[in-house]
Amino acid sequence: MRVNGLDLSGSEYDLLSALVDSDDPVSTADSIYEKDRAAYTELIRGLARKKLVESLMPRESSRLRSVTAAGRSAVTDYRAALAQAEADKRDARRHDWLVASYGIVGGAVAGGLMTLLLHSAFGL
Predict the structure, then answer these.
(1) Strand 64-67 vs strand 53-55: parallel, antiparallel, or unpaired?
(2) 62-97 burial, b if ≥16 CB within 10 A, otherwise e?
(3) Which of the 8 DSSP states describes residue 8?
(4) pLDDT score recorded for residue 87
């Protein structure tokens, strides 16, 4: 999803979100690093290139130093965009159900009226 000109992959968003939600982002990052070093390193480098996090030695290692204000804003904006997308989906589904319901009721009423008219006009 692209928000405010920023395009994050699902993995990047998940990691950044976990770091923002953490009381101690560095410890959280270190525990994630120990589980899957290669994937973590690639994700942190990508986030650092987008200026969402700062790493200790960006070229050699990608150990997290801190989450930037832009990183915190990105998570807030993504969450708002996801909530809005979900609300839009709910509204679209609600609209579809209402249209279908009105169509069914309207069709039943029109069919009943036509039946009454035909019976009264032609005695059918």
Answers:
(1) antiparallel
(2) bbbbebbeebeebbeebeeeeeeeeeeeeeeeeeee
(3) -
(4) 93
- The pLDDT, as a whole number, for residue 104 is 93
Q: What is the pLDDT of residues 94-103, one digit of tens each?
A: 999 999 999 9
Count of alpha carbons within 13 Å of 120, Cβ hemisphere only? 6
Q: Where are the beta strands (DSSP E) in the chain?
A: 2-3, 6-7, 53-55, 64-67
Largest CA distance in the chain: 91
Structure tokens at 18: 């976990």
pLDDT, residue 59, reads 58
Spatial distance between the Cα atoms of 68 and 87, rounded to a whole number of angstroms: 29
Cα of 100 vs its chain's centroid, Å: 28
What is the identity of the amino acid at 105?
A: V
